[in-house]
Amino acid sequence: MDKIHLVKRAPAALVGSESLMAREIRDLCATGGIELDLIAAGDDEAGRLTQQDGEPAVIGRLEADSLSGARVAFLAGSLESARAAIGFHLETALMDLTYAGEEDPRSQLRAPMAEAPSAEARNSSLSVIAHPAAIVLALLLPRLHPRHPLRRTVAHVFEPASERGRAGLDELQRQTVNLLSFKGLPKAVFDTQVAFNLLARYGEDAPESLEISSRRMERHLSALLAGRIPMPSLKLIQAPVFHGHAISLWMEFEENPGVEAIERLLGSEFIDVRAAGLEPPDIVGAAGQGGVTVGAVSPDPQCPNACWAWAVCDNIRLRAENALLAAKERL
Fold first, then answer.
1. Where do the structural domains in the chain lie, given as residue ranges?
2. pTM of the predicted model, to two decimals?
3. DSSP 3-state assignment of 126?
4. What percent helix, strand, coil does the chain show, rounded to 5?
5. pLDDT at 14
6. SS3 for 245?
7. E strands, the chain, where?
8. Among 1-10, 41-50, 151-160, 205-214, whose mean pLDDT is lowest?
9. Which pLDDT tens digit goes with each residue over 19-67?
């Protein structure tokens, strides 16, 4: 479940160098046998010395010619660099991990792990990789509904600071240290205290609101489910954690299949199920792991036809894995 094997030494480019997502793509490509060309995430990175496969590497400037020779390019840097690459209108298949291309009419939403088997042909030149929580829910729920129809589903999604990139991680770390030192709090990313806190929304001056992420998650999940099951009710909550999504999932069935049946149906190539008697999954254990881990499946004593479940994933790795699976179709 931890490795995605692709065509060896296929021509691919990576736009971005030191972002969290870019590093994950580089790591997965190395284990999957993909040769990457490093392209600058912006003119300020051109010429910077970095490392690839244990060897020094110089980042090239982002230009149309830089991507034209690649069959696939992963857009994993800044929004500006992704928009520039999309604007080149090349035949290169673009895997957008920044959400920059969401509103482009050419774009297709992708999550190969969770797409319906009958999904339409995926031949767009621009693939936008779905929100990680949408991938998790679209992976889990369709495995249950055909056999045991779901009446209602509610998901509380706890979002980590890493969804705001390295800046989000740095701000959470600095807030944590400063609170313990009785110092002022940096608020450039969240515009409020996120350390030792749970948030239903960010401060008014945050560069991107939590509501934007919530609407994106809902939009992506609706597209991935595409009428296969009733759309869940979702609530996105900013958690004071650095990395990894956690989802508290409540499912009401037409007739409750029971814990064992749910665990049996969920187990698959991309889903690791922690059965009753085992330690429930947590985001610390999910770090660096592929796919989704589910556990703590239990009946709801207040609702005879309902069960609870707890799901976790490494949010950066899950999207990177889906990007590589989508890229495999174009190699």
1. 11-129+319-328, 135-315
2. 0.90
3. strand
4. 30, 25, 45
5. 87
6. strand
7. 11-15, 35-39, 49-52, 55-58, 72-75, 93-96, 107-110, 126-129, 150-159, 233-238, 245-253, 271-273, 292-299, 306-313
8. 1-10
9. 899 999 988 888 876 776 767 555 445 556 555 555 555 566 677 887 8
Distance CA 112, CA 93 (A): 15
The CATH number of domain 11-129+319-328 is 3.40.50.720: yes
Residue whose structure tokens are 């207040």: 302
Angle between helices 259-266 and 132-144 (to 10 degrees): 120
User: Residue 124 — pLDDT band, cuts 50, 70, 90?
Assistant: confident
User: Which CATH number describes the domain made up of 135-315?
Assistant: 3.30.360.10
* Mean pLDDT score of the chain: 88
Dig out the tokens for 33 from the structure: 């046998």
315-328 and 20-32 helices cross at what angle (nearest 10)? 50
Integer Cα distance of 110 and 259 in angstroms: 31
Tell me which DSSP letter residue 78 carries.
Answer: -
- Judge whether 115 and 127 are in contact, CB under 8 Å: no
Q: What per-residue confidence (pLDDT) applies to 119? A: 62
Tokens standing for residue 104: 């482009």
How far is Cα 76 from Cα 57, in angstroms, rounded to an integer? 18
